[in-house]
């Protein structure tokens, strides 16, 4: 992240600076440095021709908003991103948008979450994209918890954990472990987050 920040500060190329700042923002968000994440995303967005980041950078920004509990902002940014990705036919990003939109829909709209889950699973089945497979398990587990079906949530989380642990998807493995714990003991778990 430090190398990316240095590159961003010294980049004569606006595209390199935008990518570097967005990378710094994503890594800072995953480390919990929220002020650096927000500031870096804001700088990256300011360098962008559109009013939102797109591709992996836009997804990382929306994911950070979602993790912070700002479902409205995450949904708005992801919907804009989905429109861009659909126009350019960027399948992987389209699937990632559906994953985030499914998570944004929960716990209030399980029907919408289920429709987004179907899109993620369809992409994962067609392509074998392992991250999409893990996203589908995570979203399915969250959906099952929102519908008060801890057994289904636990099964989805555990199946995803087998893949995540086997292939080194650390952050998704942590998310799946937390979902498995909530599903295994719903009476003692935190409310939907």
What would you note in describing this structure?
It is a single chain. Helix content is 80%, strand content 0%. By secondary structure, it is mainly α. α5 runs antiparallel to α6 (91-105) and α8 (130-146) packs parallel to α10 (170-184). The longest helix has 18 residues, at 14-31. The protein is globular and about 55 Å long. The two termini are 28 Å apart.
Oligomer: single chain
Helical run tally = 10
Structural class: mainly alpha
Gyration radius over CA? 17 Å
Give, in order, the helices and strands.
HHHHHHHHHH
Report the biggest beta sheet as strand number plus sense, adding barrel if it closes.
none
Chart the SSEs and their pairings.
Layout (H helix, E strand, L loop, with lengths): L1 H9 L3 H18 L2 H13 L8 H13 L3 H18 L2 H15 L4 H18 L2 H17 L3 H18 L2 H15 L9
Key traits:
single chain; 193 residues; 0% strand
Question: Concise description?
Answer:
Helices cover 80% and strands 0% of the residues. It has helices spanning 2-10, 14-31, 34-46, 55-67, 71-88, 91-105, 110-127, 130-146, 150-167, 170-184.
């Amino acid at each position: 992240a430090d190398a990316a920040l240095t590159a961003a500060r010294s980049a004569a190329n606006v595209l390199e600076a935008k990518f570097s700042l967005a990378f710094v923002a994503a890594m800072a968000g995953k480390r919990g440095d929220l002020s650096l994440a927000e500031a870096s995303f804001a700088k990256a967005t300011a360098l962008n021709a559109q009013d939102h980041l797109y591709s992996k950078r836009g997804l990382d920004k929306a994911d950070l908003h979602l993790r912070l509990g700002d479902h409205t902002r995450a949904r708005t940014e992801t919907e804009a991103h989905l429109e861009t990705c659909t126009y350019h036919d960027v399948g992987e990003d389209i699937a990632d948008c559906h994953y985030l939109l499914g998570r944004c829909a929960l716990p209030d709209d399980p029907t919408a979450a289920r429709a987004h889950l179907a899109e993620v699973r369809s992409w994962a089945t067609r392509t074998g994209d392992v991250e999409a497979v893990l996203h589908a398990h995570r979203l399915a587990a969250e959906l099952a918890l929102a519908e008060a079906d801890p057994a289904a949530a636990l099964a989805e989380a555990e199946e995803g954990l087998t893949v995540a642990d086997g292939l080194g998807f650390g952050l998704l493995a942590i998310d799946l472990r937390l979902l498995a714990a909530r599903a295994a003991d719903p009476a003692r778990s935190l409310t939907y987050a």
